[in-house]
From TrEMBL:
Transmembrane region(s): 570-592
Signal peptide: 1-19
GO BP terms: cellular response to iron ion starvation; reductive iron assimilation
Protein family (similarity comment): Belongs to the multicopper oxidase family.
Domain Plastocyanin-like, residue spans: 28-145, 156-318, 380-515
UniProt keywords, alphabetically: Copper, Glycoprotein, Membrane, Metal-binding, Oxidoreductase, Signal, Transmembrane, Transmembrane helix
This protein's GO CC annotations: high-affinity iron permease complex
Listed Gene3D superfamilies: Cupredoxins - blue copper proteins
Organism: Leucosporidium creatinivorum
Name of the molecule in the record: Laccase
SUPFAM superfamilies in UniProt: Cupredoxins
Biological classification of the source: Eukaryota, Fungi, Dikarya, Basidiomycota, Pucciniomycotina
Length: 631
């Protein structure tokens, strides 16, 4: 068996000689942004600018990011460098409630990102609330010391895809999504799609020197050259179909894994997924061409009538060349990533441990439609789960101290995990595991089908399954099996990367190799101090207590609604029966002469007329109130 860490360790030697210190200072703050040209939005950015800067480094560099919370409110922040393993430094993973407490206002946390064993296309984003949906996200490129395809292309560009909401996403969460008035759990649909390009650590600009978006964004091609396009979907919800009019694409990288060339006409890029493709420019052309990025509307429960689905930027061979007619929209299948083959061969793992998670959305006992794995909706604990793992001694191997809402699964070092996710929801979901890549060992579109194509058997012995860190699990009973080795001691969250669904609770944590984690990881003091700021204990169980059983104060619930006879149901039924009996009694009373006679009706009318006359004399209800105030 060849572990991921052993395969990658050999890559670190060549880049060490040219290592450099890459040090950045990020002040996280809010500013106005209008990338689609339609609406001035209050976005979350860095150092007073949006979009935040791309991070472009080389294998073997020392990457140090100083993050200061300059949001100006009593609101925490964080930065997660997506796809990084953080071996022996898992506290820098950037997930509040899991590996850190949020960075407090006006305080700084310095993240150290190891880039000696990992290369390829990544990104960074906030893991706090809705900040990444509001714009705190950017590309992160690690250039390999010895790239597999270095001789196959002349230049490269990073293609940044994203969705864009005009309203603050926290407001949408509160007023539209996580509310009893949204019983089906329909997610707010983005107002617009975005595309913009980067190269060598800077964004490409328009003639005014501003970052160029959408119709103004241009990829400058030269005839006969071959380009590497690093495509990143930084959306909080939307999945895209991406292709270049009149140009072929060959996939060479998937989520940091170099693969054998795999020709595609288009890419399906879900939230947080990345691909590198090679594109060879025309040898002769008299046209410019469209860069297409199209919403996958099947991800949206409701498609607004005014939603634009198809967008284009430009592949430019010359400023004055005409634009070739745009291809019509058509139905598209998803990119078969499970058929791709990594260049670094790794045989399929033989599992020693199986974890099965069922994806469900339902109305919970608080009246809100929530997401859950196996009927447990994730709620962030007070004390971060990693801090619990490092402080609870032998009890850290017991899942109970992590709290009932974290859905903690404890793994021993070396466990080979077969993680099966069955999606009972109607829509597909992109799932991400922190701290690891996983092998995709089986994809089923319907686990209840007897058709072997829709529900293939889960076999062992595949010679070289694809490895990545985000996988799309099909909806309506689809399933994916993933395999990974518990060789990275720490606490790692597994979650749907649709931001709405993370908020709704579609997450759980793996507590990996507790005893080894306690030996290898030493929390920086500043992280403990930042927990103190929020009144959170940096030690103990989910409630900050040194106890396996005393979880008082830790989040409990919400829970699924219980079918059958329970207190609320019995009370509601009793009330309904009583109301029905009263109604029937009135009917019977009326039928047996239980109505007012003529004299009684006349007396009632006279009393009402006298009351109205008195009110008029006093000047009405408002004037009576004014008179009373004057007295």
């Amino acid at each position: 068996m060849v572990y991921t860490s052993k395969i990658l360790a050999a890559l670190s030697v060549a880049g060490a000689a040219n290592a450099a210190l890459v040090e950045k200072w990020y002040n996280i703050n809010r500013m106005t942004a209008n990338p689609d040209g339609l609406f001035d939005k209050v976005a979350v950015g860095v150092n007073g600018t949006w979009p935040p800067p791309p991070l472009d480094v080389h294998q073997g560099d020392t990457v140090r990011i100083h993050v200061t919370n300059d949001l100006g409110t009593n609101e925490g922040t964080s930065v997660h460098h997506h796809g990084m393993f953080f071996n022996k430094t898992g506290y820098y993973d950037g997930a509040p409630g899991v590996t850190q407490c949020s960075i407090p206002p006006n305080q700084t946390l310095t993240y150290e990102i190891p880039v000696d064993t990992q290369t390829g296309t990544y990104w960074w984003h906030s893991h706090n609330g809705d900040q990444y949906a509001d714009g705190l996200r950017a590309p992160f490129i690690i250039h390999a010391a010895n790239e597999s395809y270095a001789d196959s292309y002349d230049d490269e560009f990073t293609v940044v895809l994203g969705d864009w909401y005009h309203d603050p996403v926290a407001q949408l969460n509160k007023d539209v999504f996580m509310t009893i008035t949204n019983p089906t759990g329909a997610e707010p649909v983005p107002d617009q799609a975005l595309i913009y390009f980067a190269q060598n650590g800077s964004y490409l600009t328009d003639s005014a020197g501003e970052v160029a978006f959408n119709d103004n964004a241009t990829l400058p091609f030269e005839v006969g050259k071959t380009y590497r396009l690093r495509v990143i979907n930084t959306s909080s919800f939307a999945m895209f179909f991406f292709w270049l009019e009149g140009h072929d694409m060959r996939v060479i990288e998937v989520d940091g894994t170099d693969v054998e060339e795999f020709p595609v006409d288009y890419l399906t890029v879900s939230v947080a997924q990345r691909y590198s493709v090679l594109v060879t420019a025309k040898n002769v052309t008299t046209n410019n061409f469209a860069v297409h990025y199209q919403f996958d509307e099947t991800m949206f429960d409701v498609v607004p009538d005014d939603l634009k689905l198809n967008y284009t930027a430009t592949v430019s061979y010359g400023q004055d060349l005409p634009f070739l007619a745009v291809e019509e929209q058509q139905e598209r299948e998803r990119t078969p990533d499970h058929l791709m083959s990594p260049i670094a061969v790794q045989e399929q793992f033989t599992p020693t441990r199986r974890v099965e998670l069922g994806v469900l959305f339902d109305t919970f006992d608080d009246g809100i439609n929530r997401a859950a794995f196996n009927n447990i909706t994730y709620v962030m604990p007070d004390t971060p789960s990693l801090f619990t793992q490092l402080s609870m001694g032998v009890d850290a191997s017991n899942p109970d101290p992590y709290g009932p809402q974290t859905h903690a699964v404890v793994l021993e070092k070396g466990d080979v995990v077969d993680l099966m996710v069955v999606n009972y929801d109607g829509n597909a979901h992109p799932f991400h595991l922190h701290g690891h890549q996983f092998q995709i060992t089986r994809v089923a579109t319907n686990v209840s089908s007897e058709d072997a194509e829709a529900n293939p058997p889960h076999t062992l012995g595949a010679p070289n399954p694809i490895r990545r860190d985000v996988v799309i699990v099909p909806g309506d009973g689809g399933a994916v099996n993933m395999a990974f080795v518990a060789d990275n001691p720490g606490t790692w969250i597994f979650h749907c990367h649709i931001d709405w669904h993370m908020t709704a609770g579609l997450a759980m944590v793996f507590i990996e190799a507790p005893s080894e984690a306690q030996e290898q990881l030493a929390l920086p003091q500043v992280m403990k101090d930042q927990c103190d700021y929020w009144g959170i204990s940096p030690t103990g169980n989910a409630a900050g207590k040194m106890s396996v059983t005393d979880l008082s104060g830790a989040p409990h619930g919400p829970y699924p609604q219980v079918a059958g006879w329970h207190a609320k149901g019995i009370g509601a039924l009793a009330g309904t029966i009583l109301a029905a009996l009263l109604g029937m009694g009135v009917v019977v009373w009326y039928a047996f002469g239980g109505q007012l006679d003529e004299d009684e009706l006349n007396a009632d009318v006279r009393r009402e007329m006298a009351a109205k006359a008195e009110a008029k004399k006093e000047g009405g209800a408002i004037k009576r109130g004014i008179k009373a105030l004057k007295k």
